[in-house]
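Cast an eye over this sequence plus tokens and walk me through the fold:

***
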Amino acid sequence: MADEDLEIDMKDLERRMQGAMGSLKQEFLSLRTGRAAASMLDPVMVDAYGQTTPINQVGTVNVPESRMLTVNIWDKSLVGKAEKAIRESGLGINPVVDGTIIRLPIPELNEERRKELTKVAAQYAEHARVAVRNVRRDGMDQIKKAKSAGMSEDDTKLWSDEVQELTDRMIASIDEALEHKQAEIMQV
């Protein structure tokens, strides 16, 4: 019976590790590579109506040109807060306010900024690795509990190896995604 419960938990562990990978991919979308993309503003949160709200829920994000983003803020009272949120987001973009429209000219990335962004990408990847390792730790704790509930030594070793293999696979895919993103950022 403990073996069946643990197998269900393996699927849960894999789902949680995939969640960390999905979160990493979302964070990578926010890193700019020299071209404008609406997803760059996904991590920007605006203090609207007493709570933090994603910028795409207070205005319409558009990409009129390859080096320009615009945000058409629906509520005029939120324009200043949205501008402040963009400035403080660490994207390195200087917003220009024109009524309820915020224009975001995307500057050409210089070598120094590219290296800075690769470091940010590496930090995002490290957070994902930590999340995967935390899931691994939870899995190992479940195995220890099953062992104390009567699981054999051989089964314990088998499940531990399986959890470690899953962890190694996820870490490798995180590293691969990081390499790809860093190459994309450094491409001129």
Observations:
- DSSP finds four helices and six strands in the chain.
- The chain has two domains: 2-29+110-186, 35-105.
- The longest helix spans residues 111-148.
